[in-house]
């Protein structure tokens, strides 16, 4: 018999995609469906970035170097330097989205069967990367009660084994929006040094830090060999479709290993590199505007959620997500009910059940992740729907 | 100690990249260095493709569906249908270059330790994909004496084991330029049916078939569940830097598994999809012009090579490579000598040692791959260099 591989069979279906048929059915019934479930901002991609591609004089769209165009790597290094991160072009591989940076990190640092510690809830696709690379994710649970702060470091120590090779931190965090403090990062650094672990820092949302000064894992001293910065322009410049990221480390052996995976796929996307390079020329004020907008959206979302009876939502310091605890029996059932049964003035919304972000079974059943990526008018309409829905949901508890 | 993974350590360095420091040193000494070693055409990327990107009205560069834009998949299906390949949009996943299509195929069909049979010499990066995915490549040797025709089917039968899961054929072949006949493909199909193997068909060079009517693996009857077409626009439209490919199969379970790997990286590159979609609108005459040009280049290269004493070069029916047997002791030593020691009127060339394309140690030591991707004037100058070089190379034999 012709069968798919075991890894093909066990790869998880994206939890977002599971809801798509239900959302499609709701739209077919004529409903307006507000997508609060995915991190696709409605913010315009900076026209200067698009212009860089659209005005480029290209005769032959040739392979770029496997590490990415030299000019882009230099300018990206300068961007990091402006953020107090002392890297050079030699420390950077341009990747096909942040996804490929994650893939390079797992492939280059871990063998099949090795363990990767991640605070949960975490970005659901990490599960897929783990299955694809044969790596075991070991979750350490963070809690909504303290806003999803870093779990006590003793919880990390407890799960370290001889197979543990790395800790992965998403900062600011997707899905919780939590921004880790310097003290928390230093604690993590210290156990990575003590146990010879890599520290993977997914900083996709690095520019979206609202209440404090952002600390990158690359700001930590004494951990140059350990830290790998995983980056992307997707969220930073509302350019999710470009697929343009970076793998950054000062560890020379590691970047040499990762480069071989980069050579395997020859080049990162050529046009998107032009887009990324142009992004490094944007004025600092670009982030002032976008951050100001996201702060307003966050404040609106958090205050409205907490005003709903039985709802608890910590106010996160970064990214553009919140996790809210709802008075519901089961977040997956609730998400489907919103699309299949509920409507309010011919509208409804999609939420991301938080179960998809936890590795420990049973967690997240009364939590959902909501993205504040839509303008406030639209968000208000979506939150009106949520408020009404919670009043009438048959699985309401508490 | 902090170490890179075993797979990171054992990943092969691209054989092309090994020569790069030597080529750079030659350029630093003021030499003109003709790159006959890589398949980077000098043919212009069709302006209509670039215009599709450059004139697109994009406000937010959003994620595309993981399978690729519906409009592109439909038009690509129509392109295949025009070539007599009866697929629909549902049978297609848009990938990040042909590379990702190869990756999806290995991940979805083979487990670590499974075996993949490939006629050698073969595209060197297959080795890298095999290491990355834990797959073992089992080579079956083809020979320059018969122009690298498909080895006797008994040679395939001999190496099939319970771990064999697939055969990979590149047609037209890189690096040999050989175009497999319908009879050869049917023989391969039959053993794949008999032994329950997938048949991966890398058709990157499908439009570059000069002396016969091209037969795709997807033209074979009775093998819909087995055949996976791996495709790319890189060579077809001289758009190597775009990173735009496709994974195509009528096997529903397989495409469902591959889609999960596609979801893992969210989307293929967005701008490149516009480029690819525009390519499907090019008139048929586009290929007439480019093929006519490549035929002239091939004929020039093959006739000049065979006119050199001690050189033998079969005339290949497709792609834009030849493998030539040279009167030399060691193709790697020769390639380095060309860059380090030799010059002719202040010029030299880079050749690809064929050793990098064989899996069996020792094979390819007196063979090189040459790409006829440069205009004929430039090619003549490069071949003048090669002719002179062979006269004076200290390792000349025979």
Automatic annotation (TrEMBL), chains A, B:
Keywords: Aminotransferase, Pyridoxal phosphate, Transferase. Residues 35-384 form the Aminotransferase class I/classII large domain. SUPFAM superfamilies: PLP-dependent transferases (SSF53383). GO terms for molecular function: pyridoxal phosphate binding; transaminase activity. Its cofactor is pyridoxal 5'-phosphate. Pfam families: Aminotran_1_2. GO terms for biological process: amino acid metabolic process. Belongs to the class-I pyridoxal-phosphate-dependent aminotransferase family. This is Pyridoxal phosphate-dependent aminotransferase.
